[in-house]
Amino acid sequence: MVYLRATATTLATILVLGLSVCVAADSPKGKPNILLIVADDMGYSDLGCFGGEIRTPHLDALAKRGFRAANFCVAPTCSPSRAMLLTGTDNHLAGLGTMAEWLGPAQKGIPGYEGHLNGRVTTCATLLSTRAGYFTFMAGKWHLGEDRKAWPASKGFARDFTMIDGGGSHWEDMKTLSPKQPKVNFSRNGERLDTLPPGYFSSKNFTDFAIRCLDEARTQEKPFFAYVAYQAPHGPLAAPDAWIDKYRGAYDQGYEAIGAERLNRQKTLGIVANETERAPRSPGVPAWDELTREDKQRSARKMEIYAAMVEHMDDQIGRLFDHLKKSGQYDKTLIIFMSDNGANGEDHADLLLQHAPQVRSWFEKTYDNRFENWGRRGSFIDYGPAWGQVSNVPFRLFKGYVAEGGIRAPLIVSGPGVKHAGTINHSALHITDITPTLLELAGVQHPAQQERSELAAPQGKSLWPLLAGRETATRTDSDWLGWELFGNRAIRQGDWKLLYLLKGAGGAGDWQLFNLKDDPAEMHDLSLQHPERRAAMLKLWDEYLRTNGVILSDAGPFAKREP
User: Fold this and answer.
1) Arithmetic mean of pLDDT over the chain
2) pLDDT tens digits for 442-479?
3) How far apart are CA 549 and CA 8, in angstroms?
4) How far, in Å, CA of 83 to CA of 101, rounded?
């Protein structure tokens, strides 16, 4: 992958530059509708079509109709991923070099660490609306800047119903996980919302809004770009009363057995190779048989709620699909589904109390975490590292880490012109590829590809040649990808991955070399066997650091500091 430098400029100056380009010859006739759906913190193996036991019939049907990517790479956490998704550039160029919540002292005031989408990038929503006449809207989580100037209404979306923050309650109470913030921030069409309607639940209400916007797009007779960024299944785990007991007893056999079953299904489906081993239990996670009966009950209950949450999200996605079918738009709509990062292995409440123990009394007064209230209004629970690793089978670790468990996610693409119905592609794809794909389909040239533009050019590659059946991969063995977050770092080239995890993150504190084709769980360091490969990839790391303006800092959830 080639990384380009860009200097800041104003969006208004460059939007008047440049013209649309012709769409690819094998693109659908006319400009297709686009529905981009993102799940929050959902793991690689949770969907039925990726090996999970959770019932996800609507997404499974989408996969049967379309294309699954088994090797789709993302950032290890929410906001860096979303920055890359909507701009096609590396997060360090786009303004989310780290999560705004964990900005390190050396990163403050440095370009690329603004904590919001900066002036060096523009969103695909902006380009689709201004250059291709799309009706653009979003419903769901933003997490790309809290200042009003950074909200979706200022970033190309004509309509929005948005949770501005990175997380919070799924109910109408708008509770947060910090006493410093009274309630979660929401916007509707660029205006702040102070309350949510009675009976609100995130997945349902985001879907309701998206359906209304689909109807509005029809009245305007425009193609639409819909960005539906569900808050589910991000913690706190929650599900409506009618759903919360759907998996009662389903996880009583424990995380080790469920993980083994998922891996076997993945092999049968062709998601992973038959010889694939899954990562062992994370340090500190006891064997299931070592737990007391009460601990087993409590652990299984958390996974029951998580599964209900995922199935409920799939049900709401089904509502979107049904509405498109009834209006005659389904076969005219390119549908992309993905997760923003690997499943979460942290308990948000434990992390809060670890870094800010003084807020314990506030937390206990604010949340009702009695066992019988788990997953209902007023509770705040997560399912922890044991089940998080099950969600990421077969990979090591989870969200927050640049190990595969943090940066590998499910991707499904279906719609007009997409070949390979029901097939699985194993080539390396990247989240920055989405924006170039959408722009190509809409016949839009990015301003950075024209003279006098100072915007950062998209670094991803259009997936359309792959989706249309003209190619089997978008990258050669010489192309490469890079990551950095919280001081952890990685380089991938072909099947090879060079990984550096800080000791504070449970890593070796040194570079390790893995062959992902043979060892997707990153269990066997090959540095001594392949020193030339290691040295060559270290040079790529230096290039990634220079061209993206990376400022290394260990500030983050792995460092003991106040949030």
Assistant:
1) 93
2) 999 999 988 788 899 999 999 999 999 999 999 999 99
3) 13
4) 15
For 248-259, how does the pLDDT look when each residue is reduced to its tens digit (9 = 90+)? 999 999 999 999
Burial 342-351 (b: 16+ CB within 10 A, else e): bbbbbbbbee
* 171 DSSP assignment: B
Which pLDDT score is estimated for 114?
A: 98
Q: Quickly tell me which residue has 């997060």 as its tokens.
A: 91
Evaluate whether 201 touches 212 at the Cβ level (below 8 Å): no
Q: In sequence order, what DSSP letters do the residues of 223-261 get, joined into one string?
A: -EEEEEE--TTSSSP---TTTTTTTTTTTTT-HHHHHHH
Active site residues: 78, 143
Q: Give the span between the Cα atoms of 464 and 419, in whole angstroms.
A: 10
Decide: 336 and 36 in contact? Cβ < 8 Å: yes
Handedness of CA 207, 210, 216, 218 (dihedral sign): negative
> Are 151 and 190 a contacting pair, CB within 8 Å?
yes
Residue owning tokens 């956490």: 77
Can you tell me the distance from the alpha carbon of 85 to that of 330, in angstroms, rounded to the nearest whole number? 23
Q: What is the 3-state secondary structure (H, E, C) of 258-275?
A: HHHHHHHHHHHHCCCCCC
Q: Closest Cα partner for 50 from 390, 518, 319?
A: 390
pLDDT band at 507 (very low <50, low <70, confident <90, very high): very high
Pairing outcome for strands 488-493 and 496-500: antiparallel
Phi, psi of 43 (to 5 degrees): -80, 170
CA distance linking residue 235 with residue 220, whole number of Å: 37
Q: Give the torsion sign (CA, 269, 394, 513, 76).
A: positive
pTM exceeding 0.85:
yes
